[in-house]
Amino acid sequence: EEIGRITTVVPYNLDDWDGYAVDREKLLALLSGKNVINLAGDTHNAWFRAITDLAGNKVATELATASVSSPGLEGLTGSEPEAALGFAGALQVLIDDLNYADTSQRGYMSVTFTNASAEATWHFVSTNFEENYIVNSDKVETISRTM
Q: I need a surface site. Which of 24, 45, 109, 135 has the fewest CB within 10 A?
């Protein structure tokens, strides 16, 4: 029963791409072969994933940034770090091609583009409630131009 929930093909977020499968495939067909990087931030959480079409072909890369002050998905799990880490792990099981997710920290992302690649660095702040804070920039992903 649990595996059935994970492997179901029924859309679970009709307000996202899940609810627009035909339109999604049309857009991905237009983007195919074009070395696309999509920048996202609406979830207010840090993540990195491949975007694939229904046939499983990688069409683009998606980079998402956390937010410094707006809450993210950790609001669903409470303030316990273990719960947020478990939630991020569950997302990686449920969302195909999700390579990285951090739903527990606040911060921002910088991306450097060259002719050969794009390098994304996620920067996380130790606090957004005090004037003095520490920035941790340990998470880096490099996306080569050859997809």
A: 135
- Quote the pTM value: 0.81
Q: How far is CA 98 from the centre of its chain?
A: 7
Asked if residues 144 and 132 have their Cβ atoms less than 8 Å apart, the reply is: no
Rounded distance, CA 17 to CA 91, Å? Answer: 16
Q: What is the DSSP letter of 145?
A: T
d(CA 8, CA 92): 15
pLDDT value of residue 76:
65
| φ, ψ dihedrals at 58, nearest 5° | -70, 125
Buried b (16+ CB within 10 A) or exposed e, 32-57: eeeeebeeebebbbbbbbbbebeeee
* Sign of torsion over alpha carbons 13, 3, 61, 42: positive
